[in-house]
Write a structure and sequence with these properties.
With 611 residues, the chain is of the alpha/beta class. The protein is built from 20 helices and ten strands. α2 crosses α10. It is elongated and about 120 Å long.
Length: 611
């Protein structure tokens, strides 16, 4: 995981390109953003008008010859400014809130959509905790900074510019006091920004590891307890937490130093303004000078408020940049397996399929000189050839790591060969869409995944438009109906997260019903009976005949009792077919399959004798 992150995130400075990409997502909801900007600009105008109105009042009502005839103008102006504040603040709070919600929606939506497009290879090399952190804490952090942060930085920048313009128009000599301090502020900001950015980036890296540790701790809790690893796991987690604390504290210390330094500079500027401005009081036109001095003291004090705001937002942007880098990296990840533009033009994409152009699949499958290897791994298949007619049931047996699962994963196009072709109905499957293939594919896993929902919902995932009657018919065909009727709410019983509320065997039967409802032309049974009890296995053997009928079926199995009725049995060793035939033909050969079957038969007899 560490290697993965360090390889992708090595920036040492503030990356404007990253934020421009994020802003493109923000601008998808232009109306809210434009209205928010209008309200912020109006607020800046009100913030400038208020001191100017007070300065006007001092010059008008406290001169040697005060003119009180204009008091209603002042009162009216004050009321209008108050109403303006009311409307403007309500407006920008509402718009900023809308932007926050919409940005969070867009970021999570884009990221999750990309996760649906990415192939198995991405999940093989990317920690689950890394992905979870992107969709939760990172997206939340960015949506906040891009709404309220945008308001603060826009208001602060415009307000500072407006103050400088007014001060230079009023008295350019005194305005130079503030201007002279700007280079110092700039240098200080650059120094602290770099320190804060580095510290927060390290903290975000560690946070991803902590999220992954949470996930692993929850998913592997049974293993942890059975191996008595509680103390070890806690110590490993504590190391991560300590590093997170250290990195966060380092960032907090730099932030804590940064803001007081800005505050001290603001006090110096105010003192200089008062000292130099007070000298002007010796001049004859004292009323003008009092009004001007008020204006300069007010605006000098106010000038450093937006600086503090902008500095705070820059610090938060620096903190959030690590989140932005990772989220953009996810969104911009290019799938290793994808449809070509020509294929998309004809068959549509995963999210916009052109089903009217999809050919009816028969199920003929052929490997032609296929070579495949996983990244950073040895070659699994080399010049591999295999031809299976439609409707044939094929069993793949062999030792762990021989290439059985690789073959079926290639058929499913979860991976693609480095060379050679995989033909379906005589055509390279890369010339058709991924969605077309997967819509004609049924895959029953060793440990099937059920979604947190009802039994009915989980079966219906096989074909979302199926009626309740069709779902129940599929359930009856594979003996699901028998145990479902005994559940508290029958088909409306919630199975829990991952199907935790029902047994492993029952989950497997539900997955068979789901596959049957999908009515796939190609069916993959990957160790479908390896994690269930013997009684349930007998039931599932009966289900096999129902679900495989009329389909091209590939059965990956260690239990050879599940494959004896297959049309063809292939014995795989080191990515090569070393034996091929029916169950009886392979037994007659007295080769590898014979040895596997004999040893397994003996072991099963020994186990039964112990019971």
């Amino acid at each position: 995981m560490t290697q993965f992150e360090e390889a992708d995130y090595q920036y040492e400075k503030f990356e404007t390109g990253i934020w421009l990409k994020i802003l493109k997502l923000v601008m998808k909801k232009k109306r809210n953003v434009i209205l928010m900007i209008i309200f912020v600009v109006t607020l800046v105008g009100l913030d400038i008008l208020y001191p100017l109105l007070n300065s006007y009042a001092i010059a008008t009502f406290f001169s040697k010859n005060p003119d009180f005839t204009k008091k209603y103008f002042y009162i009216g102006g004050f009321v209008l400014i108050a109403l303006g504040y009311l409307i403007t603040i309500i407006g920008f709070i509402r718009m900023a809130g809308n932007v926050e919600v919409e940005v969070g929606y867009e970021l999570r939506g884009e990221a999750f959509r990309k996760l649906q497009e990415l192939p198995f290879a991405y999940y093989d090399k990317t920690p689950a905790g890394w992905i979870m952190a992107r969709l939760t804490s990172d997206s939340r952090r960015l949506s906040t900074i891009l709404s309220w942060g945008l308001v603060d930085i826009l208001w602060g920048t415009l307000y500072m510019i407006a103050i400088l313009v007014v001060l230079f128009i009023t008295n350019w000599k005194m305005a130079l006091i503030i201007t002279a301090l700007l280079p110092i502020l700039f240098i200080i900001s650059i120094f602290f920004r770099k320190k804060i950015l580095y510290a927060y980036r390290e903290a975000r890296k560690t946070n991803s590891k902590i999220t992954a540790a949470y996930n692993e701790g929850i998913m592997g809790i049974k293993t942890t307890k059975t191996l008595v690893l509680e103390k070890t796991k806690h110590e490993e987690f504590d190391v991560l937490c300590v590093k997170m604390r250290q990195d966060s504290m380092r960032a907090i210390i730099f932030s804590a130093l940064f803001f007081p330094i800005i505050l001290v500079i603001s006090y110096i500027a105010t003192a200089l303004t008062m000292r130099i401005g007070a000298g002007f009081i010796l001049n004859p036109d004292i009323v003008f000078l009092v009004a001007t001095l008020y204006l300069f003291i007010t605006f000098t004090t106010h000038f450093f408020d937006p600086i503090m705001q902008v500095a705070r937002i820059l610090a938060e942007l620096q903190q959030a940049q690590a989140s932005a880098e990772r989220l953009i990296a996810l969104i911009e990840t290019e799938p290793e397996i994808f449809d070509t533009p020509e294929v998309i033009e004809e068959y549509g994409s995963l999210f916009s399929p052109k089903k009217e152009n999809w050919e009816v699949i028969k199920g003929n499958i052929e490997f032609k000189n296929v070579t495949f290897k996983y990244k950073k791994g040895e070659t699994v298949l080399e010049d591999f050839n295999l031809k299976i007619p439609a409707g044939t049931s094929v069993a793949l047996v062999g030792a762990t790591g021989s290439g059985k699962s690789t073959i079926v994963n290639l058929i499913c196009r979860f991976y693609e060969p480095q060379s050679g072709e995989i033909l379906i109905d005589g055509k390279d499957y890369r010339e058709r869409s991924i969605a077309w293939l997967h819509s004609n594919l049924g895959y029953v896993l060793q440990t099937p995944h059920l979604f947190n929902g009802t039994v009915m919902d989980n079966i219906r995932y096989g074909r979302l438009e199926a009626t309740d009657e069709e779902v129940i018919a599929a359930a009856k065909a594979v003996n699901v109906d028998e145990f479902v009727r005994e559940l508290p709410e029958s088909y409306n019983t919630n199975v829990g997260e991952g199907g935790a509320k029902i047994s492993v065997g029952q989950r497997q039967l539900v997955s068979f019903a789901r596959a049957l409802l999908a009515d796939p032309k190609i069916l993959i049974l990957d160790e479908a009976t390896s994690s269930i009890d013997t009684k349930t296995e007998v039931v599932i053997h009966d289900v096999f005949n129902t679900i495989m009928k009329g389909r091209t079926t590939f059965i990956v199995a260690h239990r050879l009792s599940t494959v004896i009725n297959a049309d063809i049995i292939l014995v795989i060793q080191d990515g090569k077919i070393i034996e091929r035939g029916t169950h009886q033909e392979l037994l007659n050969l007295k080769g590898e399959y014979y040895s596997l079957y004999k040893n397994q038969f003996i072991n099963e007899k020994i186990e039964k004798s112990k019971i």
